[in-house]
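Q: Structure for this?
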Amino acid sequence: MAKIKGNAISPTRREDYAEWYQQVVKAAELAEISPVRGCMIIKPWGYAFWENIQKGLDALLKAAGHANAYFPLFIPKSYLEKEAEHVQGFAKECAVVTHHRLEAGPDGSLVPAGELEEPLIVRPTSETIIGAVYAKWVQSYRDLPILLNQWGNVVRWELRTRLFLRTSEFLWQEGHTAHETSEEAWEETRRVLEIYRDFVENSLAIPVIAGAKTPGQRFPGAVETLCIEAMMQDCKALQAGTSHFMGQNFARASGIIYQSREGREEHAWTTSWGASTRLIGGAVMTHADDDGMVMPPRLAPAQVAILPIFRDPAGRRAVLGHAEGVAAALRRLDTAWGGKIEVVVDSREMNAGEKGWEWIKKGIPLRVEIGPRDMESDSVSVGRRDRSPREKYSLGREDFIASVPGVLREMQDGLFARARAFLEGHCREIDDPEEFRGYFTPKDPEKPEIHGGFAWSHWCGGRECEDRAAGDLSVTIRCLPPDREKSGPGKCIVCGGESPGRVPFAKSY
Amino acid sequence: MAKIKGNAISPTRREDYAEWYQQVVKAAELAEISPVRGCMIIKPWGYAFWENIQKGLDALLKAAGHANAYFPLFIPKSYLEKEAEHVQGFAKECAVVTHHRLEAGPDGSLVPAGELEEPLIVRPTSETIIGAVYAKWVQSYRDLPILLNQWGNVVRWELRTRLFLRTSEFLWQEGHTAHETSEEAWEETRRVLEIYRDFVENSLAIPVIAGAKTPGQRFPGAVETLCIEAMMQDCKALQAGTSHFMGQNFARASGIIYQSREGREEHAWTTSWGASTRLIGGAVMTHADDDGMVMPPRLAPAQVAILPIFRDPAGRRAVLGHAEGVAAALRRLDTAWGGKIEVVVDSREMNAGEKGWEWIKKGIPLRVEIGPRDMESDSVSVGRRDRSPREKYSLGREDFIASVPGVLREMQDGLFARARAFLEGHCREIDDPEEFRGYFTPKDPEKPEIHGGFAWSHWCGGRECEDRAAGDLSVTIRCLPPDREKSGPGKCIVCGGESPGRVPFAKSY
């Protein structure tokens, strides 16, 4: 068991990408499916990663003037119905609360009782309930802007689920803002997208392409949806964050009316934006390899695992004491991003090789073995998660300690550079419809999930061409980048009509 | 509007305690009722207080070896039914999900559709779902202990709600642990109670009495429930945290079975424990006064509000620059409890008196006015929330800055000392049934909520005597303190039977 021949994760990415993903999530102890259909259990290592994501993103949102608040889990059905497109978008995946107690039925078993006059929907998103509250809070332009964010759980009923990527319940933050003018709301929509881009690229080390969704891909009820799109290692796109400009749609639906500076009654302009536990799935599919998870050092639950090696109780005591000393010295150090280095001393009594592999699979950036011989030479044996699991180097204790902040920074930058090279290496400008079809058709029918990448092709802007391009290839336009026109004009890949510039087409999660 | 004659909160505590509470919560902008029956909206100032409560308690729980995780929001009905007492305890207040989509009905309006085979209960607490998962995780004694905590929302349907104290949805943490032996589980139950006591007394500045619940007041399914009980300013008790020893009840119900060191199959021993947003209500009712909220400095969303005073744009610029300088100097300081001092510079253009009252009502520990004259003399004008709102003192800028950590510490200690004196001043040893009755009977029928306090009386241990004491007085035994016997033996206040020591009887929330 201690020795792993070949890779720690079976199957590998090439063998079966979808199953590899499930196995990595399992081996890294990030999450597992629960006995409740469609819902997941986020395990301690996965939840600690989520806590770091929350902390990092929350700090950026607060620095930009947002405050956190909390609104009800339940949304009355009539609220959801206020915005026609919105309710259409969510009606098919609603968890509906219809009763408020259980009572003994005719056969003695408990049955739902106390039927509600109006069913309640477990929030799939909170635009309508928050809109109703803002309508109460806002009287005058002096009450604007309102810049609130909420961390919580939402439910969108799913029959086919995949851990982190698509589950009936997931955790997220949803921001909801109300403004005096269209310009301010637009500025907010863009500012938050930039926060998402900054966070996902610089903290999660996931490169993204930012842009606007096509009309057909907008959030139900939005005037415009901005998004960031990442590329997973199977070359599919993952939407990693969205920021919606609602115009006055939700203000009209909810009655958010303010008296303007000129004394007129106006509808407010609103935005909403969210990022979720999906980001964890994105980090797995961007960084993990055939040996398991690779945590971006900046958000890793811990950066260093110290693995003391001992044979007997006396040796154990000596080595553990020494290991705790190294840990204490490391914990005093700042990372390159502020905050202290987190260190785990794994003193469990188990096979050293097996223990090392556990930490490899969990993706901890640095593994440090310390045994009696290392103590004698005052050195440590170090394994980096961005190198082969079998590659270790020995270093004097003090030199090692001093090196850690720099090595972590180097690993963080290296992960991002590698992911960016992957993304750039899997983009192709395609103008020929046959080549387009070939690009998205699996070469190997046994490995349907490994295929082309992002096809940068021309699009005339027509909904029909978008649908036809998608067609049986399941390809969508991921976004319209703001600098689209830099690529120069051309002919739509579907109809040959005029296109102002290329857009990325891809398969997606 | 700027000048407030008398008190900022109407009615006062003496006039109408229940209404005073609602008015403080409103005036401090902590929370408000939502359009969804029974659910509250936690506003930014209240939520920031909650975030600090979470941060403080989370650190203590993690230091004691607990990790956070996340389990599903929904509990299948059959899971809840596994433990007979447990389901009885919660069946009457369950939000039941019966359908998973909405569809156009005969009249075109949307109706629940996609009926679930088994109804799902929105978790009122997670023992049964977490128990089912632990049963999967645990095989051997080597898999124990499991020490997990979860931060999340729960729903217990309530018809009569009161902000923070009793709402259908509330936020909390719930810990769930599984152990190899009864002793270990007992130790855990007590350790967490001590964490709660430490946190509530030393961070929230709320003195408590710790002890065990009587059998009739235990958590549904628990073998023993430990609790901490605080006294509000109307002399009612508030249960501020509970820690349950489950014995093997839930392990039996869920099948948490491990192979022991001797190779036998044994049921694990489990505990659970929780503290909720109710603590915010407890802080209001312990510290607030007739001018609004009084935040314990250690957990206040901000410790200092700087209120620049200006008359015109040029003056505004100068004063704001100066105020930001003071704020920056304060933000570099550590509080007595670790962490930096949080400062708000309130630059809104509004009446200075009105602005000051807003911060008084929000309960910020220190208000600092800086106007052109203060700038000239390089001084500031300071108001402390633990003194009269009209009392201010002037201090040189640098002296003031240097004084802040010490003043905050003094205020924190002062709040606790005052609350402890109140608690001690409203405890009475009562041995005469008539006196007991009189103690809990309002002297003034117009003010039914201001009455005696905690009656320390003898109890024989009989359920019937407990119920009869409660009777029409709505008085319960709050807990059985571990040092109960120190008070010496006596005769039960109800039946005259033998009692090993006094216990606190009180009305409660």
